[in-house]
């Protein structure tokens, strides 16, 4: 198992775009998607923590939960998927989540519904992704 990817120094935020360094935890088992999401989010002023599976995401959330404003979780990851990770996080503290899936999302368990701010269907474009993130953060 590899260790979670630490945030790196973000590029300057685009002028007039919200973000303000708010911290987002992004978990997906596809490395290319993780790096593209990080680059896009950091370009828009967010600080990004990356995890390659649900276990890493839950561990990072435990360590950094006071900083994390939103978690983006792929529902289908090897080992521990997004719903399992969200269940772990919700047991620790209040969490706001945006779920990502390439299929129809499963019914949400009642105890997790209040944490979910939306579902993003793969494939998605950069603008749609940013709109969903901003909406989930209440921007």
What's this, in brief?
Helices cover 37% and strands 20% of the residues. The protein has 139 residues and is an alpha/beta fold.
Structure commentary:
The chain has 139 residues and is of the alpha/beta class. The protein has a single domain (23-137), classed as Response regulator (Rossmann fold, 3-Layer(aba) Sandwich), CATH 3.40.50.2300. It contains five helices and five strands. Helix 2 runs parallel beside helix 3.
DSSP summary, beta strand count: 5
Helix fraction, binned, reads 25-40%
Number of DSSP helical runs? 5
Q: Catalogue the unreliable spans.
A: 6-17
Summing up helix and strand content along with how strands pair, one would put the structural category as alpha/beta
Strands ordered across the widest β-sheet: 2-1-3-4-5
Taken as a percent bin, the fraction of beta residues is: 15-25%
In round numbers, the mean pLDDT is 88
Order of helices and strands: EHEHEHEHEH
**Total count of domains:** 1
CATH superfamily: Response regulator
Main sheet properties: 5 strands, parallel
Distance between the termini: 35 Å
Shape from CA axes? Answer: globular
CATH architecture: 3-Layer(aba) Sandwich
- Indicate the radius of gyration in whole angstroms: 14 Å
CATH class: Alpha Beta
In CATH terms, what is the fold-level topology?
Rossmann fold
């Amino acid at each position: 198992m590899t260790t979670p990817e630490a945030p790196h120094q973000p590029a300057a935020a685009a002028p007039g775009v919200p973000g303000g360094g708010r911290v987002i935890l992004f978990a997906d088992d596809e490395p290319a998607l993780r790096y593209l999401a990080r680059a896009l989010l950091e370009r828009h002023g967010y600080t990004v923590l990356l995890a390659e599976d649900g276990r890493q995401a839950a561990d990072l959330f435990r360590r950094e939960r006071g900083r994390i404003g939103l978690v983006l979780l792929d529902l289908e990851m090897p080992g521990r998927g997004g719903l399992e990770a969200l269940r772990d996080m919700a047991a620790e503290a209040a969490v706001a989540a945006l779920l990502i899936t390439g299929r129809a999302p499963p019914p949400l368990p009642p105890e997790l519904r209040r944490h979910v701010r939306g579902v993003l269907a793969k494939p998605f474009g950069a603008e749609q992704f940013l709109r969903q993130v901003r909406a989930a953060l209440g921007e």
